Amino acid sequence: MTTSPSFAQDAADRLAVVEALYRFTAGIDLRDSKLLSSALAEDAVSDFRPAAAKAGFEYPVIQGRDIIVSALTTSLASLDTTHSVSNPRVTIDGDTARMDVLVEAQHVPRSDPSRYYLMKNRYDVELVRNGDVWVITYNTVDNIWRSGDPAVLSVV
């Protein structure tokens, strides 16, 4: 079986789009600001408001790669996190893409590992091609279900 160049390019682009979210979530979990930053466009926007509202707190829309990286590394500094990405559905139109994906996010305070807050979130992600990689331009996070103590997210 031979594969057409357009099919191979489409498959490579779809994988590269998902890879942007892998860099984003791994950057958070590994506390790797450089990796996290590599997933975001310079003027990226992060909108966690829908998920935050369901957890009972307010979180502002954040704009700008450096501000997003700083906000995430600061707000999650006292937590161990794991993010699992599943069921990505990718649509590509030239040099832009959109992805609907599920992300399960576990949050555990390092000072008290008996507590946790587990969230199953739906990410609506917009991306652009930036050279050989895809980067996130806009990410909206909504929550599907949650378990545990939401106060974990406000641990300092």
What do you see in this structure?
A six-stranded mixed β-sheet has the order 2-1-6-5-4-3. It is an alpha+beta fold and 156 residues long. The chain is elongated, with a radius of gyration of 16 Å. A hairpin with a 2-residue loop joins strand 5 and strand 6 (133-148). The protein has helices at 5-29, 33-38, 49-55, 65-75, and strands at 40-47, 62-63, 79-93, 96-109, 117-130, 133-148. Helices cover 31% and strands 44% of the residues. The mean pLDDT is 94. The termini are far apart. It contains four helices and six strands, in the order H-H-E-H-E-H-E-E-E-E.
Structural features:
six-stranded mixed beta sheet, alpha+beta, 156 residues
Radius of gyration: 16 Å
Estimate percent helicity: 25-40%
Structural class: alpha+beta
The beta-strand count equals: 6
Q: Percent of residues in beta strands? A: 35-45%
Largest sheet: 6 strands, mixed
Summed up, the helix count is: 4
Low-confidence stretches: none
Strand arrangement within the widest β-sheet reads 2-1-6-5-4-3
Shape: elongated
The average pLDDT is 94
Cα(first) to Cα(last) distance is 56 Å
Order of H and E elements:
HHEHEHEEEE
